[in-house]
Design goal:
Pfam families: GFA. Keywords: Metal-binding, Zinc. The chain has a single domain, classed as Metal Binding Protein, Guanine Nucleotide Exchange Factor, Chain A (Beta Complex), CATH 2.170.150. The chain has 2 helices and 10 strands, in the order E-E-E-H-E-E-E-E-E-E-H-E. A 5-stranded antiparallel β-sheet has the order 4-9-8-7-6, with no helix packed on it. A 3-stranded antiparallel β-sheet has the order 1-2-5, with no helix packed on it. Strands 3-10 form a two-stranded parallel ribbon. Strand 8 and strand 9 form a beta hairpin. It is globular, with a radius of gyration of 14 Å. The model has no long low-confidence stretch (mean pLDDT 94). Bound molecules: zinc ion (ZN). Zinc ion (ZN) binds next to loops.
Length: 120
């Protein structure tokens, strides 16, 4: 199992499986908070310390809630504002073991403009 945490450890995440591909996005939010992101079905990522130790940010179209630790400020994940069937979680892979980060293939996603991957 892959376990990660924010810098201070107040928010801890356990992934349901080993990610092989991650997404680096250039949208107005992701270019600021980084990534890369890995995605899982909503509810399958075990998260401790949330919402007790977290704050969130809901951006323009109000579909996603971006979650950060209220103590150290690190962004840990995002979740759908509405947990509809098929909804996904995004997990900020930067909170995990550097070896895991290095093992994952990162694809660049043009979230700022075309909503397409910029490379295969
Ligand atoms: Zn923290």
């Amino acid at each position: 199992m892959h376990q990660g945490a924010c810098h201070c450890g107040a928010v801890r995440l356990t992934l349901p499986s080993t990610p092989e591909v991650a997404t680096s996005c250039n949208c107005s939010l992701c270019r600021r908070i980084g990534g890369p992101w890995v995605y899982f079905e909503f509810g399958t990522v075990a998260i401790e310390g949330h919402p007790d130790s977290t704050e969130d940010y809901v951006q323009g179209d109000r579909t996603l809630r971006t979650i950060r630790c209220r103590h150290c400020g690190c962004v840990t994940h995002w979740e759908p504002v509405e947990a509809v069937a098929g909804a996904r979680h995004g997990v900020h892979l930067g909170n995990f073991d550097p070896q895991l980060i290095a093992s994952v293939r990162v694809r660049k996603f043009d979230g700022a403009d075309t909503w397409k991957f910029l490379e295969e």
